[in-house]
Design brief:
Largest sheet: 10 strands, mixed
Helix content: 40-55%
Distance between the termini: 37 Å
CATH class of the largest domain: Alpha Beta
Strand content: 5-15%
Mean pLDDT: 95
Bound molecules: ligand 26Q
Oligomer: single chain
Shape: globular
Low-confidence stretches: none
CATH architecture of the largest domain: 3-Layer(aba) Sandwich
Length: 746
């Protein structure tokens, strides 16, 4: 079919075309197969507002969902072309930082697949998350342009005026069709500012932060380390929610709402606090359209639902009153009036406190639903972090454990495993993840277990080839692949993993060799202004150089840090993984979703009882997961007591001391930057806010056990089978169905 289409539209045969020609033609071919459906039909509709949609490349995902992937791949193969090569041409839209943005993308896929009327609403950033480049073993940042002349965006005629204090910006809406499995589509509605200009980007990702009309939608989350950065974030957020609110009201009226009954026509899911200003903005627009303030506030409360994605206090947004007054004084005024409506005895629940606006408080008071993203996370919100709010509104709080779309993370990323599951259980699992249950009966089937092992090796070979081209490193497919791929953050504790690697290295230097070659893979970006995170990257890159240059150590281990981790890299890494590192300090990771992707692809988790790891452990049972470390409760109590003392651990425990001391060993200083290495070392000894030293011993012991267990190949394959089968619960189809049944009611 594509063959014909190409010849007809391009006037030449496919066999003589360049990959770029084919890629561009595939864009329009694919788009022409997407079914138009009445996007503003029906009554109630969901608006999922999010500052991030980490959608990743769309070509193969769209082809899969349209049911065209296999046929197109075959056609291309028959003329000597490879769909994989053509996919690699597509620039990746990295319109998100990590989990929260990727979750939004998975939800769009699932909502479309389930046939739910749901729009995603966000910003059309000209540059996605910065491109990471390593220089002198350190991270540097480059702008990441992703919009080429031929792209997936549909420019629309929809425009809104967004009024700031001193000026008004004109927006334009770009729609992106989100194809669900079986060609049921929804739309991602991305707003851009007409005045934005890429010419103001200078020197990496620097730009004039005061030049708001030229820079508003240039970047995803501009650096917020200085005041101008923070202000810009306020401008961005207001721009996003004002466009969203205008769109929501216009469409609801078109569907027959008189606005008093808005809650029957629209539900707004607020993805973390970033879009929380939609609350005062909706109130403003409703009053502008003649509804009185108190009624408007009540309507908005019945329309909005809020998802919390974080427990870290420093990630909870609090905006200085003066920023809001400077950018959007009317919104500040409305926020104060909303605050007065909820003023009770407890000052700590107030929205405006001193000179700060607490965005989470605004979102909780004026939503009808507040949810956490994993069972443990929701319990911590209810009983610790947001206890006062839970006491006020017990009925609002609910849990929705995260999920991932199996279309991208299984069918797309792991075609061989998909085929094996299909041959064993039939096609049902593609739309009904529960069918993965049927895999369980093969637990003792040696053919199936060895097929799983063969597939893993094949995926390792694929990764090997990819990394050979991308980084020039050579992996060994007979090695154990131990992978930690996620944003770089102290609470995720890549430093703990690095300390283990140092220990292994020193053991090898002492003549204690592992049974098998070990491959430690990291992939992570650090926020550009996050010094400690960058220090950890530096440590890992130095270790990787140290090991590579050591003739003995390199025989037993390899350390790789992959540059520029993004969705496409994840799709290559995850299917090749044996051990999935999910080692956050218990109580700190709200859920995690990488943990789900890895298990679905037959990796065994090495993790703490944190976030969704708790549910993973419950499902797979203790023989099929490696759990270590202090519990969330112990950690929370330890913080409360203020008694954590890393220096005491360092002094007492020789293993810890040996590993920590090595960070500034002369061998390391020869490779790395002493200031950075010493800063990290001193932080570990004196602060260690995320308690890496506390869990080090248990982590080492448990990791050694996992490596030892790997040698019983049949038993290991059984573990991977159980993990794949139990991953069914973590389908985002299940998550989105729960949101719909209990919150959206579409
Ligand atoms: C806040 C203020 C100023 C600037 C930036 C931010 C900011 C930006 C991004 C705060 C938070 C984020 C992203 C958070 C995030 O990705 N959270 C993750 O959400 C996942 C989906 O629910 C969870 O699985 C992860 O556990 C959680 O860390």
């Amino acid at each position: 079919m594509f063959n014909e289409y190409f010849e007809k539209t391009k006037g030449k045969p496919l066999s003589t075309a360049s990959d770029r020609d084919i890629y561009e033609s595939l864009l329009s071919f694919t788009a022409s197969h997407m079914q138009e459906r009445g996007y503003n039909a029906g009554k109630k509709k969901l608006y999922y507002i999010s500052a991030e949609f980490l959608i990743g490349k769309l070509l193969s995902s769209n082809l899969i969902n349209l049911g065209l992937y296999g046929a197109v791949a075959e056609e291309l193969k028959s003329v000597g072309k490879s769909l994989a090569d053509i996919e690699s041409i597509e620039p990746e839209p990295s319109l998100g930082n990590g989990g929260l943005g990727r979750l939004a993308a998975c939800f769009m896929d699932s909502a479309a697949t389930l046939g739910l009327p749901a729009d995603g609403v966000g910003l059309c950033y000209h540059c996605g998350l910065f491109a990471q480049k390593f220089k002198d073993n350190k991270q540097t940042e480059q702008p990441d342009y992703w919009i080429e002349d031929k792209n997936w965006l549909n420019r629309t005629d929809t425009q809104y005026a967004v009024k700031f204090k001193d000026f008004t910006l004109q927006s334009r809406l770009y729609d992106l069709t989100v194809t669900g499995y079986g060609n049921k589509s929804n739309r991602l509605r991305l707003f851009d500012a007409e005045t934005v200009s890429e010419s103001i980007i200078k020197d990496g990702i620097a730009f004039d932060k005061k030049d708001v009309d030229s820079n508003l939608t240039l970047f995803l989350y501009p650096d917020d380390s200085d005041d101008n950065g923070k202000k810009l974030r306020v401008y961005q957020q207001y721009f996003m929610v004002s466009c969203a609110a205008q769109l929501i009201l216009d469409e609801a009226v078109e569907r027959g709402s008189n606005l008093h009954d808005l809650a029957d026509f629209a539900v707004v899911q607020i993805n973390d606090t970033h879009p929380a200003m939609v609350i005062p903005e909706l109130v403003r627009l409703l009053t502008e359209r003649g509804i009185d303030f108190t009624e408007a506030a009540g309507i908005v409360r019945n329309v909005c639902a809020y998802t919390n994605h974080t427990i870290l206090a420093e990630a909870l947004e609090k905006w200085p009153v003066k920023y809001l007054e400077e950018a959007v004084p009317e919104i500040m005024q409305i926020t104060r009036r909303l605050d007065l409506m909820v003023k009770g005895a407890d000052e700590t629940c107030a929205i405006v406190q001193g000179d700060l606006v607490h965005m989470a408080h605004l979102a909780i008071h004026f939503s009808f639903s507040v949810n956490g993203v994993a069972a443990l996370h929701t319990e911590i919100l209810k009983n610790v972090e947001l206890k006062k709010f839970y006491d006020l509104y017990p009925d609002k709080f609910n849990n929705k454990t995260n999920g991932i779309t199996f279309r991208r993370w299984l069918i797309g990323a792991n075609p061989d495993l998909t085929e094996l599951i299909r041959s064993l259980t039939g096609d049902g699992f593609l739309t009904d993840a529960d069918r993965l249950k049927d895999l369980a009966m093969y637990e003792n089937d040696t053919d199936v277990l060895s097929a799983l092992d063969t597939i893993k090796t094949k995926n390792k070979l694929r990764l090997k080839e990819f990394l050979m081209k991308k980084e020039g490193v050579v992996l060994r497919e007979d090695s154990i692949f131990d992978i930690q791929a996620k944003r770089l953050h102290e609470y995720k504790r890549q430093q703990l993993n690095a300390l283990y690697i140092i220990k292994k290295y020193l053991d090898i230097k002492d003549g204690k060799y592992p049974d098998r070659h070990l491959t430690f893979i990291f992939a992570a970006k650090a926020a550009p202004s996050y010094v400690m995170a960058k220090d950890i990257i530096h440590l890992i890159l130095c270790l990787s150089k140290l090991v590579a240059a050591d003739p003995v150590a390199s025989k037993y281990m390899t350390v790789v840090m992959i540059e520029n981790y993004n969705v496409s890299v994840a799709e290559k890494l995850i299917p090749a993984c044996d051990i999935s590192e999910q080692i956050s300090l218990a109580s700190k990771e709200a859920s995690g979703t990488g943990n789900m992707k890895f298990m679905l692809n037959g990796a065994v988790t090495l993790g703490t009882l944190d976030g969704a790891n708790v549910e993973i452990a419950d499902f797979v049972g203790k023989d099929n997961i490696y759990i270590f470390g202090k519990s969330a409760k112990e950690v929370i109590d330890l913080y409360k007591s203020g008694r954590y003392n890393p220096r005491a651990l360092y002094s007492k425990n020789a293993d810890i001391r040996r590993a920590v001391d090595f960070i500034s060993d002369t061998a390391m200083l020869k490779i790395g930057d002493g200031t950075s290495l010493r800063r990290l070392q001193s932080d570990l000894i004196n602060k260690d806010y995320f308690m890496a030293l506390l869990d080090f011993e248990d982590y080492s012991k448990t990791k050694d056990k996992a490596f030892a267990d790997y040698e019983d190949r049949a038993a290991w394959a059984r573990k991977t089978l159980v993990n794949i089968s139990k991953a069914r619960y973590f389908s985002s189809d299940r998550t989105v169905s729960e949101y719909n049944r209990e919150i959206w009611k579409l």
